[in-house]
């Protein structure tokens, strides 16, 4: 018997994207920085990212169609929503939580160099 998919997997990425931007903007960060983080993690260019948002695709498709996960994404560690990223077994959930962690770090005022693991 297979476990049911988590509800966020089928949620449109475009529905959560404005929440990422709002969280960043509340802390005096910008939509451009949010886009930069998403592009860094997923390999989308700006046009590709915008196209995925406009197409209202779900999180699963968003990450399935992502050009490539950044090779340094394994350096993103810590806790998101009470769960340690390194202990997440489901590959899709891990990618979603990696993105959440990047947005959290942006909102907490970290420099882009530190967030992008440079």
UniProtKB/TrEMBL annotation:
Domain of life: Bacteria
InterPro entries xref list: SP1917_dom_sf, UCP033199
Pfam families the record matches: DUF2200
Xref: Gene3D superfamilies: uncharacterized protein sp1917 domain (1.10.8.290)
Name of this chain's protein: DUF2200 domain-containing protein
